[in-house]
Specification:
- The protein has 117 residues and is α/β, with parallel strands linked by helices.
- It has a domain at 35-110: Oxidized Rhodanese, domain 1, CATH 3.40.250.10.
- Helix 3 links the parallel strand 4 and strand 5 (98-101).
- It has helices at 20-28, 40-45, 80-91, 104-110; strands spanning 15-18, 32-36, 52-53, 71-75, 98-101.
- It has a five-stranded parallel sheet.
């Protein structure tokens, strides 16, 4: 067993988990792009202002924004579908990094952050 040097950083997970307060701060500083992967009826009922809608059932990688230099944040109702999309995009080398919104739009709503319909 080789000892680990304190100067060695473990490899960073290509899919980060971020809470809604962090994502809200990133949006306020123009540091994030939001992708809503919920179905059209869910998006129409409520969504985060400025979110790009790419439903999981019709997911089109060509619709992904460039978002260079910004966090690419995926969200759904609770964070499960968005995690799945991020996993697939990373595994297929379509994107290098992704952020999954922990708790999804339910956590965003519970925090009192803006929504639109």
């Amino acid at each position: 067993m080789t000892p680990t040097s304190p100067l060695t950083n473990p490899p960073m997970d290509p899919i980060q988990q971020a809470d809604v307060s962090t994502i809200h701060k990133w949006l306020g500083n123009d540091q994030a792009v939001l992708i809503d992967v919920r179905e059209p009826h869910e998006f129409d009922a409520m969504h985060i202002p400025g979110a790009i809608h790419i439903p999981l059932s019709q997911f089109d990688v060509n619709a992904l924004p460039k978002g260079e230099g910004k966090h690419m944040v995926f969200y759904c109702a609770m964070g499960m579908r968005s995690q799945s999309v991020a996993d697939q995009l990373i595994e297929n080398n379509i994107i290098d990094t992704a952020v999954n919104m922990v708790g999804g739009i339910q956590a965003w709503s519970a925090a009192g952050y803006p929504l639109e319909s």
